[in-house]
Amino acid sequence: MIELRKPKPADIVNMQALVAPEVANGIILPRSDDEISTNIRSYVVACKDGKIVGFCALHIHAVYLAEIRSLVVDETMRGCGIGSMMVERLLEEAKFYEISKVFTLTYQRNFFEKLGFSEIPKSELPTQKIWADCIKCKHFPICNEIALIYNI
User: Whole-angstrom Cα distance, residue 7 to residue 121?
Assistant: First the structure.
């Protein structure tokens, strides 16, 4: 059984170990322990038998706009619905905060479209996203991720 919960700072070591291969492959942006600590309340972790098998974050950019980011699921657990569970939990959180739009930048178009996201031009993303996050990416400025949005 999969349990979703908010992480604690002590979970960061295991979160970093889980995401390391995706960071090395340029799939997910690197985040320092300090950055994760500062934003720990924006994350949700998925656990099986007490072990973290996935996590992602809801990062609020503006009064009406948030982002699903840093979505990762243990390679051995992919295809079990864990990613969908976490995204759906964060969309509920966005509703709680009365956020009307949630976007993501991803290589996984089909996954997000199945959850109700629709593709948008990257030019519609907030400028601060590009300069705060994208500039850290090893693929910047040549990026083949797509932007998708969910309207609540």
Answer: 32
